[in-house]
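Troubleshooting: if your tokenizer reports a length mismatch, compare your output against this known-good record of 805 residues.
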Amino acid sequence: MVVKRRNWLTHIILIALAVAILFPIVWVVSTSLRRDNAAFSTKLFSSRISLQNYKDLLFPEQNVLRLLKDIESITTNSMPYTEKSYDALLAKFRDDIEGLKKYSIETKNLIQATDKEYENVQQFINENSKDLIKSLIENANLLKEKSKENEPDEEKLYVALNVLLKEGKLKKSDVDDYFDLTKVDEYEKVWEGLFLDLSDNISKKEDEIKVIENQINLLKKDLDFYQSEYSRLSGIINDSIYPQFLSFKETLTVALDILKNSDNSVKAFVSETNEMEEFERIKNYLEELSKAKFTDEFTEFSQLISNLNNLSEEILSIWKKYPDKSTSKYADFISAIKLFNLKASKQLRESVDLIKNFSNVVDKYLEYSNLLSVLTKELEENKLKLEELISEYERKKLEIVDAERFVYSVILDGKISSFVSKVEKYNLPKDIRKTYFAIKSLRTSLNNYLSYVNDETRRKEMRKFLRNMDWVESYMNFEKRYEAFSEDMKEFVEEFDKYVSNIEEIGPNAIKSAKNGIKIRISALTMLFPKIQSDYPAKLASNLSLASKLAVDLIDFLPLKGANKSLKEIDKRLFRVDQIWKEKTEHHLLRWILNSVIVAGLVAIITTLVNALAAYPFSRMRFRGRKYGIMSLLLIQMFPAIMYMVALYGFLSFIGRYIPILGLNTLGGLIFVYLGGIAFNMYLIKGFYDTIPSSLEEAAMIDGATRWQTFWRIVLPLASPILAVVVILSFMGTFNEFVLARIILQDVDKYTYAVGLWTFSTGPFETEWGLFSAAALIGMTPMVILFLSMQKYLVGGLTKGSVKG
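Known-good structure output:
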């Protein structure tokens, strides 16, 4: 007996792979069917299922806004109605007006029916008020049971109360109903012994840190100011003063050289007044500058000032002892000094003030930087000390954490008791707001208590009990949103009817005037557009969408399920109202798919025919270059088409001038580009031809068949599997190609499916995942049909015999 071993690991791996592979497909399908926006939903699968995405893509409805745009085109004799006769325009105008009236009547009927369902929900809540309140009380009592804590000893309890009161987490009014406040005062000294010094030290340390932080902030502002001043003055020194001082150095060097190399052979008249006094004044400026402080950035400039000071001192010492002041050399020296005094006097006087200011800025900046470093270090030390104090404080608090949890459990218990006593008297839905505020107060107390609970399971259970009460908030908001929407929508439709009546009255005359060349824009039509495009989304659609979503939430949250049918009807009808009035973006999905089918179909057929013919010689014939010819083609095709896109773009731009059907922004030009990739498919077909025995062709040729007949009637039928593969690969590759199509095609109506699908991920469709998913699934259809239709060739071609019986 053979015992089969069950390999569980293999089964588990296969199941995991199946889930991983199928999950994206299931998600795409479910997303395409859901009415809520998958981009903002927390649910993987939605109960709000609809085929609306497919309807919008395949059979777009002429809703109110589209009819109004159509009427505007008719009454102004614009595209696509410019060639229509008056009678045809008038008939179309009346059809559109009737469409608007039908939508108005449908909206009124929907609102009326939805109001009845809303009343049914209200009636259900009212009839089952006791049961609903009972469910709230049950959940509150479950919270009460879960929040019971063991009572600590009296000292720890009242010390914990003192801590919570001193920290500001509780007020005396919060606890006076549950604890003896006189004992709180009695145990205050125990609290002081344990926590007062620490608490005061923490407060002092926090105050010190705040003071230091304020000082640091002020210092940083001052440093920013001095940094900006430093940058400004540095720029002046580098750009203006430094180059001028370099020229001064050159002038003084020349003057010193003249003074040292004295020649008394040539006498001359020398006019000298107060040049030496002026030079001495300049030297004093240089001495002042040499005392200024500079940063390392200005080492060269500081050295330059020192050199100028030394040069001036040397010149002055020689000048005072100069023996003969009536020579031509001395005259040249005085001339150079006059020129130097003239240039340097004003410049050095201004430079002294600027560089003094610069030196002060540097001093202040260094002073404040050092002070900032000291304060920063002090701040870090104080923060570390504060952390130590807080750690010690928290360590001591750990001793009373159970007591603190008990305090909050007592408060929660009291809140629950108060909550129960209140809601028992309420009648829903009349007292829904009171019930909501009672739950809100209960939630605050529960959150305070849970902050002390470490058991995650217990926390989740208690939060679950609280979430079971969330339907109260959902119902309160649903009531508020729906009533506001219903009232506003009725007024909106009544006003809309008045505008439509006005348009209906003036429209025929406007059409006649437009046909005679004078276009009249109907005021009512012009005013109606912003009301629907702006007022409806801002004032009505927000309340509608929230009411619709809350209705669905109530189906999940409401403890009793008797109102589910009415809530579903409300959601369904509100969705229909939104479809009538919302602005929908135009798209051309069917046109894009048709473009792709045309392009991919022609490319697949032409590629297969060309490859079938081109591969035959490489397989059956012998000629020079046969061995390396196909390899060369394969080598060329290794480079992606995007590499020569610039050349292709230029070529299509050029050829489009003479053959427009093959130019840019044409399907013909795109087909022409796609036909370039044939080498790989040729290699595939050639390999398959090699497996077909050549003796079959030789036998046929002996019987009188030509080479063409053997190729057409024997080789091609036997090669049908590989030809089917080439057709499928070529079609799928072309159908899904994006980059080249995006570059070549500019007009929206000429987009291929891949480019069109890309538009669903940008602009107005950016978060419309339902439309995107539906468009993706619709776009699969041509490829699925092709694969299924070619399947018989894939299998049948492999089993066909080559000779008869």
